[in-house]
Amino acid sequence: MSTPKRQVHLAAHFPGVNSTTVWSDPRAESQIEFASFEHFARNAEKGLFDYLFLAEGLRLREHKGRIHDLDVVGRPNTLAVLAAVAAVTEHIGLVGTLSSTFNEPYELARQLATLDHLSNGRAGWNVVTSPDAFHGANFRRGDFLDREDRYARAAEFVSLAKELWNSWDAGAVVADAAAGRFLAEDALRPVEHRGPHFAASGFFNVPRSPQGSPVIVQAGDSPAGRDFASEHAEVVFSRHASLEDGKRFYRDVKGRLAAWGRAEDSLKILPAATFTIGDTPEEARDLARQTALAQVGPQTAIAFLEQAWARDLTGYDPDGPLPDIDPDYGGAGVVAGRANAATAGPEQVRRWRDLAAAEKLSIRELVIRLSARESFVGTAAQIAETIDRHVQERASDGFVIVGTTNPYGLDGFVEKVVPELQERGVYRTAYDAGATLRDTLRLTAPREARVAVG
């Protein structure tokens, strides 16, 4: 008897604050107007995706002291958008990025539990551990967390949120024709927490949500991030999308689960990937090249190198060779507000120079190479086959699909690749009736919180 094929899980990433999105595309529309979010959400639901995913920007990026407007500028509040999207969808999960550094557990737990109720159990939280003073300047904290401290704060934050969500039993609110609605005896427990980062006292004021608690998503890749994921996360938004790299990451993170008494399927690993579909492989490769040139225009190429060189490179030709000067290692930098903006060290610069010389790459061509996400390029059947292989060989449990235009970038995938996956028998043909996000992801009941009390 043959073993059933592993099923593919898919999430849809709304265009975010990065150079993946081609805002110069003539079909590109507003990143603020609700019509963009509505089209994207309805189309992802048409494609039977597990959930849609919104990133969040808490401050405008800056470059050389000015607003960096090459990617995207405005970014509305994530929870407000997800609440609105809940009203125009029925099945798809709603996952938003929300910082554990610049929020408080009680208030965020209330907001997420409320979204879970409003959506009938479709809410998820992508926990990010923002460390920097640039974003902190807009918050009472007004400073930053050392990188070794941010996961300690996040762990306490998530544990306390879980304790708040779990303080209501299922069915705690009882309806009675004569007495109206009342609390069942001993169905609600007070929360008393005093820890290094947070305090909470009293009763949580939102009843237990339809799926027990929102699904926890996380994207950290450091050793501390992987440990955090193995304890708390139910989905990992990974950058390890190639087959062999994905297998290594999959084994490492899922190998940590047993220490927390967790099974392999209690955590889904979904790397991010873009796609380009052509009627032939050759057409797909040509379209992918055109897209890359649109994503990394001349200004973007120079800006990328300036972030690494930490100095003004305006005078250099983006279609010419790399700068003949070294990075300003002692400088203050030119970029603020970009995640993972790193200054190149001597060895990294040497490797870039060697690569550019060996392959005769211009600045722009090198930046395209360095900034490219994992991308599926080919016919719809080829892309479906690649996705299926990753899942069957345990390089991932599926993918977060990132379109390159807003809001229509997902349309081709839904129209062409999804039917191919269904034909292979590895993707649903309908949502389960009444399913929560946890059900759709085939996750177990939420784990009880373990809160460290100081």
From TrEMBL:
One Pfam family hit: Bac_luciferase
GO MF: monooxygenase activity
Ranges where the Luciferase-like domain occurs: 24-393
Record SUPFAM superfamilies: Bacterial luciferase-like
Parts forming coiled coils: none
Keywords: Flavoprotein, FMN, Monooxygenase, Oxidoreductase
InterPro entries: Diverse_substr_monoxygenases (IPR051260), Luciferase-like_dom (IPR011251), Luciferase-like_sf (IPR036661), NTA_MOA (IPR016215)
Top-rank lineage group of the source organism: Bacteria
Record family assignment: Belongs to the NtaA/SnaA/DszA monooxygenase family.
Matching NCBIfam families: FMN_nitrolo (TIGR03860)
Protein name per the record: NtaA/DmoA family FMN-dependent monooxygenase
Classification of source organism: Bacteria, Bacillati, Actinomycetota, Actinomycetes, Micrococcales
